[in-house]
């Protein structure tokens, strides 16, 4: 991810857009799979419903509430 960020900032190389690089450190192998954009994705789909960051602690119920 850090490498991809640097590439995008410098506008160099071929970004991993539409591809996923799988790395197995134990076997020291790499595999690449192509991914198609999910038009129903709530974040980057055609009609996104998640448009801002959420409070994950509240979302996961980690905040104390009056009910306990
Ligand atoms: Zn998405």
Keywords:
two-stranded antiparallel ribbon, binds zinc ion, extended, alpha+beta, 68 residues
Low-confidence stretches: none
**Spatial strand order of the main sheet:** 1-2
Helix coverage percent of residues? 10-25%
Indicate the mean pLDDT. 90
Instruction: List the ions, cofactors and other small molecules found in this model.
Output: zinc ion
Given the helix and strand composition, which structural class is it?
alpha+beta
Tally of discrete structural domains = 1
For the record, give the distance between the C-alpha atoms at the N and C termini, rounded to a whole number. Answer: 39 Å
**How many DSSP E strands?**
2
Architecture overview:
By secondary structure, the protein is α+β, with helices and mostly antiparallel strands. It has one domain (2-59). It is built from 2 helices and 2 strands. A two-stranded antiparallel sheet has the order 1-2. A hairpin with a 4-residue loop joins β1 (19-24) and β2. The longest helix is centred in the first third of the chain and has 9 residues, at 2-10. The structure holds zinc ion. Zinc ion binds next to loops.
């Amino acid at each position: 991810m850090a490498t991809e960020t640097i590439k995008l900032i410098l506008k160099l190389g071929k970004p991993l857009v539409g591809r996923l690089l799988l790395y197995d450190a134990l076997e020291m192998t790499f595999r690449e799979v192509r991914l198609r954009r999910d038009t129903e994705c709530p974040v980057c789909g055609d009609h996104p419903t998640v448009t801002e960051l959420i409070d994950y602690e509240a979302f996961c119920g980690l905040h104390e509430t009056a009910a306990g």
